[in-house]
Amino acid sequence: MEQSIDRNSDPQYIGKNLLQNIKTWQQELAEGFSNTDEICNYLNISQADKNFISPSDFPLKVPVEFADRMEKGNINDPLLKQILPSKDEDVATLGFTDDPVGDISSLKETGVIHKYQGRVLLIMTGSCAINCRYCFRRNFPYNDIQLSTKKHLNAIKYIQNHPNVSEVILSGGDPLLLNDQKILSLMRQIESIPHIKRIRIHSRIPIVLPSRITEEFCSKLSTIKKDLILVVHSNHANELNNSVQLACIKLKKANITLLNQSVLLKGINDNAQQLCALHEKLFTFSIMPYYLHLLDKATGTAHFEVNQQQAVDIMNQIKKSLPGYLVPKLVREQAGACNKIVIA
Fold first, then answer.
1. Who's near 31: CB < 8 A, 6+ residues apart?
2. In 3D, which of 170, 241, 172 has the Cα closest to residue 206?
3. Using CA atoms, how far apart are residues 122 and 117, in angstroms rounded to an integer?
C-alpha cells in the first residue's frame, strides 16, 4: 500500500513549493503599484485623504515590497509622501524649472554629462524602480538623451579622449534597472581605459528593490578591477529593513564601498532626530553618510523645499548628536557651478 504524503510537513514538498513562490526582481518590479487607487486601497487610505491626490504626467511607480514598509491608514507616512502624487505639484513656483541643475547644458555626447573636473556621468536609462515625487530629473528628456546600445561607443570614446577624467559615474534613471549583461559589458569597456581609477554607481534600487542585488550580480561586480563605489539613496530610517541589509552584505562582500545621499524634504525628514536615526541605522548596514542635499528646484517639487537657514539649524543639531563620521555634507547643486556647493 502506497504511503500518503502530508504536504504540510514533508520538507521536500515544502521546499519545492517555496521555490515556486519565490519571485525574481523583474517580477517584483512588474507587479509594483502604478495606480493611486490601488496603493491607497492597499494601505487603507481613507476617501477623505484621497482628496489630496492629483493625477500627474509623472506617474506613480512603487514596488510592493517598499509599500509594505509604510504605515497603513497614514496619509502622512514619510515613505508614502515621497511617492504619492499631490495637488501641490500643480502649483507653479518661481525659480523651479525643468532642468534645475543644468544637466542639458552640460551634455557633451548623447548620454554623457561632463560638469565637474575629473568626473563624467553617463545617463544609462530613463527608468527607475520607483518614481520619487521630488526627483530633479522628473522632467528630463530621456528619450533623446539616454545612452543606447548603438550610442554608448561614442561615450566610451569621449572618456578615452579625456585623460583628465579619473571617475565614471553611472546614473539615470537608475542604472541597476538594466540587466547584468548590459551593466557589466559597459563596465568592462570603462575598466579597459587606463586613466579611469573608479566607477561610481548612483542607485536607489538597493533601498527600494533589494531583491535586484543578487549573489550572481555581486559576484560579477567583484571581478571588476577598478574601485567600485555605490551611492544609495535613503531619506528615512523606515526605508531600511532586513532585505536592504542583506543586499548591503552582498555588496560589501564584493568589496564595494557603500555611501548614502539623502534629500532634505519638508514633512518627511526635516528634523535632526529623524536624520540622526537614519545615519545611525545606515552605519549598521555598512553605509556611510555622504551628502544631505537641499532640494533641487525641479518643476512640481516646491512643496518639499526646506529653506537653507532651517537646513543649517538642523545640521548644527546633528553635529551635536553624532560623531563626525556619521555627519553628511550639507550641499546644494547650482547650474553652471564647477562643483557641489557645501553649505557651512
1. 23, 64
2. 241
3. 15
Question: What are the Cα distances from residue 84, in Å, to 28, 79, 87, 155, 250?
Answer: 19, 9, 10, 35, 31
Cell 550610442 -> residue = 151
C-alpha cell at 94: 518661481
Q: Tell me the CA end-to-end span of the chain in Å, nearest whole number.
A: 81
Residue-wise pLDDT for 304-327, tens only, equals 999 999 999 999 999 999 999 999
Distance CA 48, CA 154 (A): 52
What is this structure's pTM? Answer: 0.91
Domains of the chain (ranges; CATH) run 11-90 (no CATH), 104-342 (3.20.20.70)
For residue 320, count CB atoms less than 10 angstroms from its CB and return exposed for 0-12, middle for 13-18, buried for 19 or more. Answer: exposed
Residue pLDDT, tens place only, 48-88: 888 888 888 899 999 999 999 999 999 999 999 999 999 99
Q: Which residues contact 99 (CB under 8 A, 6 or more apart)?
A: 105, 139, 140, 335
